[in-house]
Write a structure and sequence with these properties.
Strand order of the largest sheet: 1-5-6-3-2-4
Structural class: alpha+beta
Strand content: 15-25%
Order of helices and strands: EHEHEHEHEEHHEHEEHEH
Helix content: 25-40%
Distance between the termini: 23 Å
Number of helices: 9
Number of strands: 10
Radius of gyration: 17 Å
């Protein structure tokens, strides 16, 4: 599941404890070949509640305050990283992913319709009166879902994953995120997720 900035902010505000650890995708790339690292920040993967306690106890990451978690979220958002997690409503970790190294996004981009494979349940809506055709939204889109058409950006929902990076990066506020219909609601928790997987395999 993909999350928008505001969704992650709510998780930070309501979860305790919190932890941060190194992105294993970019860390692996750096270990294999220093030149392949994309330059995005590494210590940005956040854990919540029981997930954070697990990471802290095993020294796989470090405890952080809510204020530091928000600083990390802002850092990731400004860097154009996508907030990814497991496919359930009750989450215990969040990866801040780049499309060049992240396993989740690379697999999604290999799908014929990435926007249906992973999604936040939201989609961008353009206010053409505010748009200055600066193309920042195109540059920030990790899936290549935005193209310029007669000086205005158009969003291909087959490719849009609803990450909201186009909206948070727009200098004029011309893009807002709205609920996207037809996107299934993730299972509530890990038990419900396992049940859904078993039922899908049996069908």
């Amino acid at each position: 599941q993909i999350h928008t900035y505001d969704q992650v902010k709510r998780y930070i505000e309501t979860s305790s404890p919190l932890a941060v650890s190194t992105c294993y995708c970019r860390h692996q790339a750096k270990l294999l070949d220093e030149a392949s690292h994309c330059g995005n920040p590494d210590e940005v993967c956040i854990q919540f509640g029981a997930g954070a306690a697990f990471v802290i106890d095993r020294k796989m990451g470090r405890a952080i305050s809510k204020a530091e978690a928000m600083e990390i979220l802002d850092l990731a958002e400004n860097a154009g990283l996508v907030h990814c997690t497991n496919n359930r409503q009750e989450i215990d970790f969040l990866c801040n992913c780049c499309s060049c190294h992240c396993v989740i996004l690379k697999n999604a981009k290999g799908q014929p319709k990435p926007g249906l494979a992973v999604n936040s349940g939201f989609q961008p809506i353009l206010n053409a009166e505010l748009c200055e055709s600066c193309e920042v939204c195109m540059e920030r889109c990790p899936m290549g879902a935005i193209q310029m058409d007669e000086s205005f950006p158009t969003m291909d929902l087959d490719y849009c994953i609803g990450c909201g990076l186009c909206a948070t990066g727009c200098p004029t506020g011309a893009i807002a995120m709205a609920e996207r219909l037809g996107i299934p609601v993730p299972p509530e928790n890990n038990k419900a997720l396992k049940k859904a997987i078993r039922e899908s395999l049996a069908s």
